[in-house]
Amino acid sequence: MKILSDSKSKLYHYLYGNGMPSIKLFKSARFLDPNQFKNLTQDIAEYSVHIKGLEECQEDWIIYCNIVKECSLCDNVVDFWNVNKKRLRKLYKIAEWLLYFTTNIAECERSISKYNNILTEIRKGFTHTSIINLNFVNFNKKSEFKK
C-alpha cells in the first residue's frame, strides 16, 4: 500500500536520515544506560561530539566504565545514577540533564528545533545557564504584543 510505504520512508528518514533535529544527541545519550553501554563503544570522544561538557568528565568516565563492567543488569537507569551520583559528580550532572529531558511532547520537539537555530557555529559558547535563560525567555514571550 502506498500509504504505508510513504509512512515507512518518512519514519526511516526521521530515525536514520537525521530528520529528527536532535537524533545525534539522543543516540549519543544511550551510553547513560549501563545495560546499553556494555554493547557500545567506550570511547568518550565518540559521545563528546554531540554532548557538550562531556569531554570534561575524563576521570568520571574511567570510573563509570569500571562500574559498568562490574555491575549486573540495571533495572532502573535513574536509580543507577542516583546511587552513583557522588562517585560520578561531573558525569551525573550531564546524566541528570539528559535523563530528565522530556522528549515525548510536541513542545519539546519545537524547542529542540529552536535550539538548532540558536546554537549555530558562532554561538556554540553558550553556557548551560545561558541556554536555560534563553529557553525561558523564548517560551514565555507573548506571541502578540498588545498596544
UniProtKB/TrEMBL annotation:
Show the SUPFAM superfamilies listed in the entry: Ribonuclease H-like
Pfam families this protein is in? Dimer_Tnp_hAT
Domain HAT C-terminal dimerisation, by residue range, is 76-138
Tell me where on the tree of life, at the top rank, the source sits. Answer: Eukaryota
- Tell me the GO molecular function terms: protein dimerization activity
Put simply, this protein is called: HAT C-terminal dimerisation domain-containing protein
Organism lineage reads as:
Eukaryota, Metazoa, Spiralia, Gnathifera, Rotifera
